[in-house]
Amino acid sequence: MQIFVPKESKPSEGRVAIVPAQVAQLVKDGHAVVIESTAGVKSGFTDKAYKEAGAKLVSEPLAAINKADLIIKVKEPTLDEVSAMQADAIFFGYLHLAALPALTKAILKQGMTALGYETLRLPDGRLPLLAPMSEIAGKLAAQNGAWFLRADQGGRGVLIGGAAGAQAAKVVVLGGGVVGSNAASVAVGMGGSVTILERDSKRRKTLSEQFGRQLKVLPATEELIQKNVRTCDILIGAVLVAGAKAPQLVSENLVKQMSKGSVIVDVAVDQGGCIETTRVTTHAQPVFLKHGVLHYGVANMPGAVPVTATQSLTFASFPYIRRLAKLGLAGCLKAFPEMQSAINCSKGQIIHPALAAEFLAG
After folding, report:
1. From CA 239, how far away is CA 275, in angstroms rounded?
2. Do 98 and 243 meet the contact criterion of CB atoms below 8 Å apart?
């Protein structure tokens, strides 16, 4: 296969979809690998390292995309990148298409096959390519929430861990999956008073066993959401429905009732957000104020720690990339049926059922 790895296009995004050692393996397997110049610099990998591994370096990505059989990228392709792809090309990376109707329509029009890291699901229900970045995003959510709670950053001026004679900050986490459990773990580690609201009873039991008395684990009922959100200092949205938009669990009216200077970190923002007042922000301008509440809505949070994020992501993703390159999509589906769940769109059709349901509803 002709494989192309473009440089990430989102602002302040330093991750790269493949590392030099993996390039060397693909070249050894008989594939041609092309990398956009400087794609790996922020993750600690020079153009020289990629070249020595056997990759060809280019500075014109659209021409390289047009020749590629397989395009690997961390975040979703741009509209220009999609328009440059051949109809029989395969894109593999994070898509989150439920929140991106214009991009979805462009992919359908182009006819190429779009595989999403975030929807690839194993038979036991795990999401192996989403989990590494969810772990990082969860940890960053707690760190960023604590940072923006400071008065010099526009927050209430509360120290997350409190101090002698002063209470710790109240941290509420919506969702107890990978994002939520990691956010809670860091918040507990910083001394916060943490509550996780989770709908699934089995997951609540697991979380209770994991954390013991370090935090509260409660059902995510409407009543308990309202009660806990209204009085929290930091609210972390960690809700996920793979392939679909995140359900909005916190209304604008409820946000209005939160204390002035409290902080919302909506990790679900790349799937539309689980808090009604959320909108996408950037690393350069990560927060905005609405109803007196600071909102953090960066859609590529792990991009802030590209060295760590790239190492973690590529360790998980490369086995799938290598199989896809070796077997092609049809062969890969036959040998590894779980790859079917990664297919979001193909040949002008929406394949993933959750994404299809979103567009039918829209």
Report:
1. 10
2. yes
In DSSP terms, 296 is beta-bridged to 265, 287
**Angle CA(342)–CA(346)–CA(347) in degrees, nearest 5?**
170
CA distances from 305 to 12, 46, 142, 284 (A): 10, 17, 15, 14
Kindly report the backbone phi and psi dihedral angles of residue 23, in degrees, each rounded to the nearest multiple of 5, phi listed first. -60, -45
CA distance 289 to 283: 16
The amino acid that residue 122 corresponds to is L
Strand blocks (E) in the chain: 2-5, 32-36, 56-58, 70-72, 90-93, 113-116, 170-174, 193-198, 216-219, 234-237, 263-266, 287-290, 293-296, 343-346, 349-350
In the block, tokens 């079917």 appear at: 340
Q: What count of residues does the chain have?
A: 362
Active site residues: 96, 270
CA dihedral of 180, 186, 190, 192, whole degrees rounded to 10: 10
Whole-angstrom distance, CA of residue 238 vs CA of residue 196: 10
- 320, two tokens: 């799938």
Determine whether 105 is exposed, middle or buried from the number of CB atoms within 10 Å of its CB (0-12, 13-18, 19+).
middle
For residue range 159-179, what is the model confidence (pLDDT) as tens digits?
999 999 999 999 999 999 999
* Secondary element (H or E) of residue 58: strand 56-58
Q: Which amino acid is at 276?
A: E
Q: What is the identity of the amino acid at 44? A: G
For 252-263, b/e burial (b = at least 16 CB within 10 A) is: eebbeebeebbb
C-alpha to C-alpha distances, 141 to 97, 130, 250, nearest whole angstrom:
22, 16, 17
State both tokens at 27.
């070249």
pLDDT tens for 115-130 read 999 999 999 999 999 9
pTM (2 d.p.): 0.92
Secondary structure of residue 297 in the 3-state scheme = coil
Which one-letter amino acid corresponds to residue 336? F
Listing DSSP states for 240-290 in one string gives --TTSPPP--B-HHHHHTSPTT-EEEEGGGGGT-SBTT---B-SSS-EEEE
Q: Which of 290, 300, 274 is nearest to 197 (CA)?
A: 274
